[in-house]
Amino acid sequence: MIVVLIVVVLVLACGVGALMYAYSRSRVPKPAGAPGVGAARTLFPFVAQGLSPRALDAALRLSHAEGATLVPVFLARVSLDLPLDAPLPRQAGLAIPLQEAIEQRAARFGVPVDARIERGRTYRHALRQTIAGERYDRIVIAVTASTGAGFTADDAAWVLDNAAGEIIVLRPGVDERLWNGGPAKGRRTRRARPSEHRSAHAAH
Q1: How confident is the model at residue 60 (pLDDT cuts 50, 70, 90)?
Q2: 60-98 per-residue burial string, b: 16 or more CB within 10 A, e: under 16
Q3: Is the predicted pLDDT of residue 45 greater than 50, yes or no?
Q4: pLDDT of 143-187, one tens digit each?
Q5: What is the DSSP letter of 187?
Q6: Facing residues of 179 across strands?
Q7: Beta bridge partners of 118
């Protein structure tokens, strides 16, 4: 009987020790870059008329500092005479080179990219759709109304009033050269990669 009790005590002691070890392992912080770390997301909406490289770099620096994923969202405006899900070949043709440029820029910062295309009757409508449908921790938006392209100060104010999370509004300098989706001067054009076709498919 004594032998049986000793065995039971030893089994219970081993079980408690295993549970304590498992609990202590679960409490150890994961190193940066480990799976499951860096789940933060930085939303970066932009339009076909122009993308601010300075605003993009600011979003990439913040994402890199926090180990976040950049979520660039191309906002496609659909006219009222078309169904909201109508094919938009022209805008898809603008979205692909802009998304490619963002991916290349992000690679220099070591920031992962999860690109999106969102439709709307206006840019603000597309912004509303984006905010409602995406998970994010921060929004970086560039006001470029002074150049006649992109978001206005009223758009930025609307985002501040309606979006959750941290919101950063930037106003690029008047001398900044915006990206507009067309081939840059002196840059070679090339065929789109399969992944780019998949990104554009969302606009069709």
Answers
A1: very high
A2: bebbbeeebbbbbbbbbbbeeeeeeeeebeebbebbbbb
A3: yes
A4: 875 555 678 889 899 999 999 999 999 887 766 677 665 544 333
A5: P
A6: 51
A7: 75
Of residues 56, 75, 97, the one with CA closest to residue 191 = 97
Q: What is the DSSP letter of 188?
A: P
DSSP 145: G
**CA–CA gap between residue 143 and residue 153 (Å, rounded):** 6
pLDDT at 101: 92
Write down the pTM of the prediction.
0.68
Considering the segment(s) 41-201 as one domain, its CATH architecture is 3-Layer(aba) Sandwich (3.40)
Contact 11, 4 (CB under 8 A): no
**Higher-confidence position of 49 and 159:** 159
Q: Residues, the chain, total?
A: 204
Edge-to-edge strand list for the sheet holding 116-120 = 116-120, 69-77, 41-47, 138-142, 166-170
Mean pLDDT, residues 42-65 taken together: 91
Structure tokens given for 77: 């405006």
- Return the pLDDT at 26: 31
Domain residue extents for the chain:
41-201
Query: How many other CB atoms sit within 10 Å of the CB of residue 203?
Result: 23
Q: Indicate the SS3 state at residue 115.
A: coil
Residue 169: what pLDDT?
93
At 162, list the tokens: 């309606």
